[in-house]
Amino acid sequence: MMREKIDQLLSEVEELKAKSEQEIEEIRVGLLGKKGKITQLFDDFREVLPEQKRELGQVLNKLKTAAAQKIEELKSVLDENPETKESAYDLTKPGNFFEFGSRHPISITRNEILSIFTKLGYAIADGPEIEDDWHVFGALNFPPEHPARDMQDTFFVTTGDNPILLRTHTSSVQVRTMEKVQPPIRVVCPGRVFRNEAISARAHCIFHQVEGLYIDKNVSFADLKQAVLLFAREMFGENAQIRLRPSYFPFTEPSAEVDVSCNICKGKGCNVCKGTGWLEIMGCGMVDPNVLEASGIDSKEYSGFAFGMGVERIAMLKWQVKDLRHYFENDIRFLREFKTEV
Ligand code: PHE
After folding, report:
1. Is 202 left (phi over 0), alpha (psi -120 to 50) or beta?
2. DSSP code for 155
3. Residue 33: which residues within 8 A CB-CB, separation 6 or more?
4. Which of 211, 248, 253 to mutate for ligand 1's pocket (most ligand atoms within 8 Å of CB)?
5. Ligand 1 centre from 267 Cα, in Å?
6. Which DSSP state fits 334?
């Protein structure tokens, strides 16, 4: 009985084949594991009559060695011929779906602003976020005692003569452009700016701007109005109206704030426009001759206009976001709202 079982198993062992490491492990457990067939035979061996022990013991040991050898052999065959190995990956399975990301609403808005102006022939200019006083204030006609130069309003990196600071507007990039090239100049300058403000729903110490500069012969305030009107209609719809209110900036004369008709109540008055029917979207003006001269441009030959807007503000108005802080907190539920916009 026992002898037959051993012989039977021995011939089975010789025929064994395996396509994967897992199969080999199953074979090993089936033969030599705690409840394996060979282990079981060793248990039965204890009951064998003493006169048969010698012979049966020999064949049983032979079987055990043969099984162990076969398992080793199967392993090395598999290692040497990986193509016979059944892949650990099932290539017929459907793939995992990776969700597309989406652009941040500030990037979407900035890109939209830039594309309106690049269509008008403006180039995009870039400059450093850590700047010196000259490029942020001095060259822009800020008097030495101007409040923007106060520690309360600006983050200073160094003090002293021409201190290093975090730029408070991207007008500094316009200065760098004027220093490098002679008119005609048409640039838009997108970028991060920094102001020493308490963070609230309407203000943040970091925000984004796009500022623009247009300098050529005979540029007039009418050209400025036209550019701003075109921008407002591209951004807020073809029925958008604009209105200019006199204002003051050290680097422009005359200066104005631009309002756009409220796109929510269509000018009737609502809580977004605080009942006025108008929303403030940017500052602008004709470049002060002092500013042109400070950067080496002849103010008798050339004139120009400049404008500057906050990207967060435009985005808030466009999507009626009431709290600016949403743009900085990266709450995934908020960001997913902009999924369709690429
Ligand atoms: N630099 C101004 C600001 O940061 C915006 C501005 C730019 C105003 C150009 C007029 C002309 O507020």
Report:
1. alpha
2. -
3. 39
4. 211
5. 25
6. H
Q: Is 137 in the pocket of ligand 1 (CB under 6 A)?
A: no
- Taking the centre of ligand 1 as the mean of its atom positions, its distance from the CA of residue 256, in whole angstroms, is 10
User: 0.90 exceeded by the pTM?
Assistant: no
Q: What is the pLDDT of residues 82-120, one digit of tens each?
A: 666 666 677 888 888 887 788 999 999 999 999 999 999
Domains of the chain are 2-84 (no CATH), 105-338 (3.30.930.10)
* Centre of ligand 1 from the C-alpha of residue 214, in Å: 13
213 lines ligand 1 (CB under 6 A): no
d(CA 129, CA 189): 12
Please work out whether the CB of residue 191 comes within 6 Å of at least one atom of ligand 1.
no
The per-residue pLDDT for range 259-274, each reduced to its tens digit, is 999 877 887 888 878 8
Cβ–Cβ < 8 Å for 253, 286: yes
